[in-house]
Amino acid sequence: MFILSWELTVVSMFTVPIFAFISKFVGARRRAASARTQRAAAEVSAITQETLSISGMMLSKLFGQQQREIQRFHEENQQLADLTLQRQMTGRAFFTSVQIFFSLTPILIYLIAGYLLSGNSPSGLSTGTIIAFTTLQARLFFPIGSLLQVSVELQGSLALFERIFGYLDIKPEIVDADDPVTLSPEEVAGKIKLEDVRLQYGLSAEEHLNGVSANGTGRLALDGVNLEIAPGQLAAFVGPSGAGKTTISYLIPRLYDVTEGAVKIDGVDVRDIRLASLARLIGYVSQESYLFHATLRENLMYGDPDATEEQMQAAAKAAFIHDRIMEFSDGYDTIVGERGYRLSGGERQRLSIARVILHDPRILILDEATSALDSASERYVQAALEPLMKDRTTIAIAHRLSTILSADVIFAVDGGRIVERGTHEELLVNGGLYANLYHEQFDSGRVECHCLDGIVLVNGRLVAPMPRVGV
Question: Rounded to two decimals, what is the model's pTM?
Fold first, then answer.
C-alpha cells in the first residue's frame, strides 16, 4: 500500500492506533463486567443449591418463607440477567463504530484520490492504482477489525480465568512432609499423645514462631493440652460447648495442624505421617453422618473401595443395618437420596458405622455419635459400636454422660484446657467440672456450691460425696 500511494496509506491507517487504544479501554470494562457476572452467577448457584436441598426446602416450609425465597431467587436471577446483558452490550457500540468506519473508509479514499487526480496536487495515481489500493485496504482492515474484537473478548474471558486460577492457586495448608512415614494398620498399636498442644485458628506454626497473631487477640482454641491415651483404651472428652473437645479430635487425623506442640501416634508426629496412611489408621463417626446421593453399596464401599461383597455385607450386619437394607426392593443398590434422606437418623448413623467397620481403623473417633438419636435408635447404634470399639483406641466426645461412664479415662475440657482427668468415680470425688456436669444430668440440678457435707444443687438438694478411692 505504501508503494501504491503513501498519502492514501497514511489516511487509511491513522485511526487504527486510536481504535487500538479504545479497544484496550473497552476491554477493561468488559473484564470488570464479566467479573461481576461471575460473582452473580455464583450467588444464584448458591441460592439454588441451598433452597432446593432437602434441608433448605424443609426449613423454608416450616417457617413459611417459600415466597421470600422465591423473591430472593428472582432478584438475584434478575441481577444476573442484567449483568449478563451489560456484559454483552459492553463493546457493542465500539464494534459497531469500528465496522462503520472500516466500511466508510473506501469512500474517504475515493474522495482523497479524486482530489489527487484532479491535478491540484502532484500524484502518480491512476484509476487502476486506486482500485488496487481499496482492494488491499479491505483485505487489511478485515483482520484488524477481527483482532480488535478478539482483544476485547479476551479481556472478558480473563475475568473467568482469574476466578478459575484463583481456586487452582490456593495452596492446601495440610500437606505431606518432605519425607513422610508410611504406617500400616498392622504395625500401629494406637497410642496417642498430645504434647503441650496450642492451636490458634488461621495461624500456622511458622507464623506463630514469627510472632504473628491471627486475630490480634491472641486467644487460643487450645492452650497447653497434654494427654496420653494408651493403646486400646476408651478415652472420653466431656465439657461445655465450645470448650475444644472436637478441636482436639480434629488434630489427630490432621484436619487441623497444631500451632505449637505435637500430636503423636505411637511416638510418631502426625505431621510426619503420609496423609493417605494416616487416613487409613483413623475412623471417624460424627453426630451428623454424611451420605452421598448414591446407592447404599457405594456409600458403604467408600470405607474400602477394594472390599468384597462378603466383607461389605459382614460390616452391614455388624452395624445392624443389613436387615433394613434388604427390606428395600433394590437392596444394596437403593439410592439413598440427598444426604440420605430416605433413611432415618438412626439408620444413617448405623450405615456410617458400617462404613467405618469396613474401613477397619486402628483409632476410632466418636463425636457425639448418638446424641441426636432416640432411645431405641441409640440402643441399636451402641450395639453396633461395641464390636467396632473392641481392641481399638477409641476417643468418645459426649455431652450425654451415660454413654461414657465406663470409659478407661475421662478428660474434662474447658476453655481449651484439660482441667480434669481420671475415671468416672475419681472425677465425681474431685467435685470439679465433671461432677457438676454429672449432677446436672443425673440429679436434675446445677451445682450451686461445694461444702464439707457434699454438693449443694440449685434446687436445694444436698448430694453426699462419694467415698474417695482407696479410703
Answer: 0.70
